[in-house]
Every structure is written in structure tokens, then in C-alpha cells.
Amino acid sequence: MARVYNFSAGPAVLPEEVLKEAADEMLDYKGSGQSVMEMSHRSKVYDAIIKEAEKDLRDLLNIPDNYKVLFLQGGASQFFAEVPMNLMKNKKAGYIITGQWAKKAFAEAKIYGEAVELASSADKTFSYIPDCSDLPITDDMDYVYICENNTIYGTKYKTLPNTKGKLLVSDVSSCFLSEPMDVTKYGVVYGGVQKNIGPAGVVIAIIREDLITDDVLTGTPTMLKWKTQSDNDSLYNTPPCYNIYICGKVFKWIKKMGGLSAMKEHNEKKAKILYDFLDESKMFKGTVRKEDRSLMNVPFVTDSEELNAKFIKEAAEAGFVNLKGHRTVGGMRASIYNAMPIEGVEKLVEFMREFEKKNA
Ligand code: PMP
């Protein structure tokens, strides 16, 4: 068996240990005589799986009792609509535009009310996080929305915006569980799991209880009303059972690794190896303002499209796959999520060094 080093932005690398455990349990989950794929979501066995997953996530993030944890479907993209549907009482919200995913959420919100651009880093191809210390937030805004880690551009908020007392809603899809976070600073934190947590098909939303009400926009589908999901403990309809089961295993893996502080240390070590190399290389350059660099997604370029293509091809042949940058920006991007081992990054840098020598 030859596993590659997978630098995909998502779906992404998962801990090998988790995959092996899932393989072992494939035909018979803990003596139930069934695969988790085959069992009823209303069964006792499955109830224990989803409850334990929630408990482990609560432990990892220290989620207070007044926040609900929901396991939802539809991807982060569907949640772009759920946010205004469930929160836009005044039909007005502020958005900070730091990349494609914030832009898409912003465009979605405009369908339902007045979405106002509070700040943007579009002027420099989203290569930095704008100053968010004094934003033009007005009293009638229902919330302020951010995309906390910008998967495509490789930026991350190091401090949260000053929301002037307004509710903060954050898309953490590509930095979920990569480091500790204080949930109480947010009204809503959510993310697709297909980067740091599990197989695509699940969105985890952590929502302050008082924001889950029947007072939603007219026309909100039953499934997209948070109250429906909350009242039914994420089991209003058939959830993506197997995917949630894998998420649960990843939570346990993170706990075993020492929790989120240990994860942060591990991720900082990996990112430093790559960024240090980019800073010293004469051929490869990072594209992000240093203080805004993401620990998870590291975009870089050479000064020639031809060389970029040659690098991506030869890297893949050497077992470093999915290094092509997002189709909208080109260049390269190494996504180095929690499950990417440190040797993956060390070996990639070794390969880049050799490539630079050969092609100088
Ligand atoms: N937000 C961020 C930060 C993303 O990286 C992505 C892409 N995976 C999305 C939202 C959209 O996610 P999905 O494909 O689950 O709709």
C-alpha cells in the first residue's frame, strides 16, 4: 500500500489511524453485526455514536451549555443562506469580504435583505486581512459575518473584528479544531467538516441558544430552520450517519493527540517549516502578508506559469499530490490540515529545495 502526501484543500487528508479503525469496524460495528452505514439513525447504537461525537466536540472546544451543537447537511454553501434566514430580523447585516467564500456568503445574504460590505481585501487579491478595529457597523445590523480562514488565499484572522457589540457569525470551515477558540466570542460558528474533521456532507454549527427561535424569515424551509434541527437533536430527518461517525473518531483522535493546544503547536511547527523555506527561497514565494498567514492553507508561486505547472506535475509524480492552487488564482497551495504529518511537510520542502536547485 502506497499512501501519498495529500495537500488537498478539501476533501482532505484524514488521520490514518481513524481510517484503519473505520475499516476494522466496516462489517461489524462493536458486535452490532452491521456497518454504521447500514444501521437505523434511530437505533440505540447510533444514538450513542452521535451523542458521544457531540460530547467529545464539546470537551475539545469547551462549548458552554448555552450553545447548541448541530450536525447539518448541505455544505457550508447552504449555510450561507441559513444565516440570513435565521438571523436577519432587521433584514440588515455587515459582511467582511476576504475571499471567494465570504463573497459567496455575502451574495447569498443579499437575496434575503440588505447586506453591507464593511471591509474588503479585494484590492490586493485578498492577500491580507483588512483592519477591522473600527468598521462602519450600524445599530440596525443583525450580525457581522466573517470567513475566519480563507482557504483559497491562505489568510487567517489573528484577532477577531471589533463588532461594536453586534453578533459575530464565523465560517471556520478550513480552521476548525486547528487551534483552541473561545466560542463565547461568537453568536454562530460553523464549518463544513471536509478539511479538518471528516468526510464531506456534514456541517457542524455551534449556535448560541437564544438565537435559535421560530422567528425566521418567511419562506424558510423547515429543514433550514435551526429550531427544527435543535428541537430534534440533529435527527429531524436521516442525517449523514456514517460521516458523523467518522467525525466522532477524529474528535477522539484529536483528544488523544493532546487536544487543541497540542494541535496548534503541531500546526505551527508544520507551517513554520514551509513558511521559513518560502521566505528564504529565490524561486518560491508566499503570496500572503506575513502577519495574516494561515496555518492551514499555504499558497505560493514561482514567477513563471510554466515552472508552476512543471513543479505541480513533478511533485505529484514524487507522491506530493493536490498542490495546484484554486482554479480562480492559479499557482500552488499546500493545505496542511491537522492530519498532515510533520514529515509530509519536511519532505515537501526537501523536494522543493531539490526542484529549485535543478531548475535555477
Ligand atoms: N467556506 C470555506 C472557508 C470553504 O473553504 C469552503 C470550501 N470547501 C466553503 C465555505 C464551501 O463549502 P461547501 O463545499 O461545503 O459548500
TrEMBL record:
GO terms for molecular function: O-phospho-L-serine:2-oxoglutarate aminotransferase activity; pyridoxal phosphate binding. The gene is serC. It comes from Lachnospira multipara. Binds 1 pyridoxal phosphate per subunit. Keywords: Amino-acid biosynthesis, Aminotransferase, Cytoplasm, Pyridoxal phosphate, Serine biosynthesis, Transferase. Pathway: Amino-acid biosynthesis; L-serine biosynthesis; L-serine from 3-phospho-D-glycerate: step 2/3. L-glutamate binds at residue 42. It comes from the Bacteria. The modification N6-(pyridoxal phosphate)lysine is found at residue 195. GO terms for cellular component: cytoplasm. Pyridoxal 5'-phosphate binds at residues 76-77, 101, 151, 171, 194, 237-238. This is Phosphoserine aminotransferase. Residues 4-348 form the Aminotransferase class V domain.
